[in-house]
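Minutes, project check-in
Item: structure for the 179-residue chain
Input as provided by the requester:
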Amino acid sequence: MILGPQAERFVLHFGEMGSRWGVNRTVGQIYALVFLSPRPLNADEISETLGFSRSNVSVGIHELQSWRLVHMVHQIGDRREYFESLKDVWEIFRVLVEEKRKREIDPTLTLLRGLLLEQPSNADEAYAQQRITEMLELIELSTAWFDEVQRLPPETLESLMRLGSKVQKVLGFAGKLRK
């Protein structure tokens, strides 16, 4: 597979962003390539296109499968494994948020709940426990809200998101009127 200049910039950028999102550069670039490909790719094609070793590609694919962002497909008459990304960008967003929640939010909730089971022994600990309670309530409220939003069809979710920018404009205009 030969990448055009636009696709190459996209792949390189996803590599840079990968490290900010909790995966390494190689995994980010592999995902970007598989995402852009109109057909499933095998590991050799990915390796050749990106100039990565076959073992790096295998590790990267395994990581992407653990995130549920790519899945394996087979082709008739070919024993190699091929990989493709989810096609629907809303589904990709949903899966990413679910995986981030499972890996980052849920352990934090468990920790906060456990901390609140302990009795404070002095005023400083009581204050800290109150702050932890506030943080727990915020995270629980946010995750409950997201659970509800996640059930919406993509069209409704998109409308809701667009409504947010319109509300901001109205609130900004109302704020200017008050001044």
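Outcome recorded: The chain has a mean pLDDT of 91.
No further action items on this chain.
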